[in-house]
Design goal:
heterodimer; A: 318 residues; mainly alpha; two-stranded antiparallel sheet; 15 helices; 2 strands; 1% strand; globular; B: 405 residues; alpha/beta; Rossmann fold; 2 domains; 7-stranded mixed beta sheet; 6-stranded parallel beta sheet; 16 helices; 45% helix
């Protein structure tokens, strides 16, 4: 594949989305990026979506559907925010604690999975309920509020979000593309039986995957909680919601991955969906319409992926 | 010596009897208090909840579990967070299987179905912090197992929004951003509060909102817009931004931030959850008002100037409906002169300063001396409808403090 084709394949979706969203905005007399707040909204969305997408993709690409990612974000941010509020910690320390708790909770989730040997979907549902319950019990149902703590709330800035996005991307590329763990992860993806036979420990690899996913969700929990200064409790799988925002960027990332690095693809997928989110904000689209549009985009993209060759042939004939 | 012994035994017996009467103020030894409440048998009461995590819901639960349950021989069994009518029906089945004699409901997905199911199983049913619609009340008011409903009626909800907006309009504020809470989900309580805000804006601005300017037409207009409201200039005032729903996604956060960051917005009003929505985005020169619960965080926010107006239900407001339910279970139902079920309205406590909020919160969160104590509630056991209604109607903070005295 030529460099030009790879570049085109990498950027075509985000560029198309950027053009289409801008055209829609302009047709309504609205400027998409009118002020710094619009950039902040966009940067926050990219940070949120890319972190969840990275986290979800790690296990999903290995056939492990993980419903517990949202509950890890919830519980890790509950722990870190409580400590930060009670001990007047800085945002950086709160972030570090969120990452630590996220990683430990992910690790625990992974250990449960390899120990009980039940299907990952069932294990992750149980873990999600358990972590939701823990968060509820820990806060006595009240959640955590730090709306009066300006220092923590002021973390929400474009440079901070860009740093988080960049660090997460670099971390993902290094860990999965340039370490022994990453090579083993890919080997297990392409053939588990053969990989195990050549000495790769699939259980250890899975546990590390869960820990890394937890680490990333710790960061997402931090970003989310410092946006509003409060952490609302979720029960009965109420924490699963954030997972769904990662599906479209994951599929887009998978497509872009053919032309470039798949992690970069996930980030560009997050950029694309965040542009759509900003469009909703700028045009004040109500939530029911948003849900319909988002669902149509997801289904439409899946139809495209499943019928790609047919579509290409259609164009070639004409 | 023998007669001395007899005298001593007689004196001791007398002392014991006097002591027993002196120490047990309410109990006559049969398990019944002087007010007639039978404390000898435990009464199980099921509680249906649609929200298990909201500040208001937690405060209500704390009042029942940490105060009422310790004062009376009752056990509250709470349901899980109920999302729909099927979940409500299943929770009622569970309560009945657990020998609950009554159900107090905070869940409203299908109230008629709840009442029918309870009545069929001879279980008393009451609505806490809510009301039935006129049609529903007409259908169930004569049912002996329907105890009644006590809570802010829809007009009170309307007034909560109206008074909140008027508070700022009277100060000369003209540019508003409004968070409509669950209005897009057709939740009447939030629709009426939003309507109240809009009518206050219409009155102050001398204009109308999509042709509506009074309560009736505003409700009609909101429904006509499928509960999806839009910003508008209303005469000399302006609804600069409007956000509804609890999406908690990036677009939702973005809309809240845009609303608060609009340089022309002077006042942010929320019909619910103002602290969890607008507070983090509010600018120092803006004002924030909300209908919410009295919590430690809300008091802190008022002290910090983050929140400036708070209308909240007090947690003990669910005390009278508990007593009406217990009364019914123990054979002394409280009904109107025509034998109909209760349908009484309660209002909000409104704080516009940190000191007020602090006072309200101190009483509201107390598990030893809450707004309605056992001594106060006991007066309602088997009370006449008029006395009961008078008690419930005196809901303001000052009136309750006077009742206590």
């Amino acid at each position: 594949m030529t460099k030009g084709k790879r570049l085109a394949g990498t950027i075509i979706i985000p560029v198309l989305v950027l053009i289409i969203t801008n055209v829609i905005c302009m047709s309504r007399g609205v400027t998409m990026f009118e002020n710094s707040l619009n950039w902040l909204t966009f940067a926050r969305a990219v940070a949120n979506v890319s972190l969840v997408t990275f986290a979800l993709s790690i296990n999903l690409n290995s056939g492990r559907f993980d419903f517990s990612v949202g509950s890890i974000a919830l519980l890790s941010s509950v722990f870190s925010a409580t400590l930060a509020v009670n001990h007047e910690l800085s945002p950086v320390v709160m972030l570090a604690l969120s990452l630590l708790f996220g990683m430990l909770l992910g690790l625990a989730s992974g250990l449960v999975y390899v120990t009980v040997k039940l299907p990952p979907m069932i294990v992750s549902l149980a873990v999600a309920l358990f972590y939701e319950g823990m968060a509820y019990h820990f806060t006595k149902g009240h959640g955590v509020s730090f709306i009066n703590n300006r220092e923590l709330l002021d973390f929400a800035s474009i440079p901070n979000y860009l740093i988080i996005i960049a660090v997460a991307l670099i971390f993902m590329i290094i860990v999965f593309d340039h370490t022994t763990f990453g090579y083993e992860y890919k080997a297990l993806q392409s053939g588990q039986k053969v990989s195990v036979n050549i000495g790769i420990n699939e259980k250890k690899n899975a546990v590390i995957c869960y820990a890394i996913a937890g680490l990333l969700m710790g960061a997402q929990g931090f970003v989310s909680s410092t946006t509003t200064g409060s952490i609302q409790m979720a029960l009965n799988f109420g924490s699963i919601g954030p997972m769904f925002m990662a599906f479209l960027p994951m599929f887009i990332g998978g497509y872009i991955g053919r032309f470039s690095n798949d992690k970069l693809g996930y980030l560009l997928g997050a950029v694309s969906t965040s542009l759509i989110s900003l469009l909703y904000v700028r045009l004040d689209v109500n939530s029911s319409v948003q849900q319909v549009v988002s669902a149509l985009l997801l289904v439409g993209f899946l139809i495209f992926l499943n019928n790609e060759n047919r579509i290409k042939n259609l164009f070639r004939k004409h | 010596m023998k007669s001395m012994k007899k005298v001593l035994v007689l004196m001791l017996s007398l002392l014991l009897v006097v002591g027993m009467f002196g120490c047990s103020k309410d109990n006559d030894g049969s398990g019944k208090s002087t007010d007639g409440i039978d404390d000898s048998t435990n009464v199980k009461i099921g509680v249906l909840v649609a929200d298990a995590t909201g500040a208001e819901a937690l405060a209500f639960r704390s009042y029942y579990e940490n105060y009422i349950q310790k004062q009376y021989n009752v056990t509250f069994m709470y349901s899980d967070e109920l999302a729909d009518a099927a979940a409500e029906a299943s929770a009622i089945d569970n309560f009945i299987a657990n020998n609950c004699k009554a159900i107090i409901s905070f869940a409203s997905a299908d109230r008629p179905a709840q009442i029918r199911k309870c009545a069929e199983n001879k279980v008393y049913y009451a609505v806490a912090t809510g009301t039935l619609s006129d049609e529903e009340y007409k259908e169930f008011k004569d049912n002996e197992y329907y105890v009644g409903a006590i809570g802010p009626d829809l007009y009170t909800e309307y007034l909560a929004g109206y008074n909140m907006a008027k508070y700022y309009l009277d100060q000369g504020k003209t540019k508003f951003a409004v968070f409509g809470g669950a209005t897009p989900y057709y939740v009447d309580m939030h629709i009426y509060r939003t309507a109240g805000i809009l009518v206050a804006l219409c009155e102050a601005g001398g204009g109308n909102y999509n042709g509506a300017s009074d309560m009736g037409s505003m409700i009609g207009t909101i429904y006509g817009m499928n509960c999806q409201l839009t910003p508008a200039v209303i005469g000399s005032v302006e609804l600069v931004s409007y956000i509804g729903g609890y999406d908690f996604d990036d677009a939702w956060f973005g809309k809240l931030a845009e609303a608060a960051n609009n340089p022309s917005v002077e006042v942010l009003l929320a019909v619910g959850s103002g602290l969890d929505t607008f507070a983090a985005f509010k600018k120092p020169n803006q004002f924030l008002g909300t209908v919410d619960a009295y919590t430690a965080d809300a008091v802190k926010a008022m002290e910090a100037g983050t929140l400036n107006y708070l209308a909240g239900k007090f947690s003990a407001s669910i005390g009278p409906i508990f007593m009406a339910t217990l009364s019914a279970v123990q054979g002394k139902p409280i009904r109107t002169a025509n034998g109909e079920a209760l349908a009484l309205s309660q209002g909000y406590w409104v704080a516009t300063s940190a000191d007020e909020a602090k006072n309200f919160y101190a009483v509201d969160s107390s598990t030893t001396d809450p707004a309605y104590t056992r001594a106060m509630l006991d007066t309602l056991f088997g009370a006449s409808y008029d006395d009961f209604a008078k008690f419930v109607g005196a809901f303001s903070f000052e009136e309750i403090q006077n009742l206590k005295k």
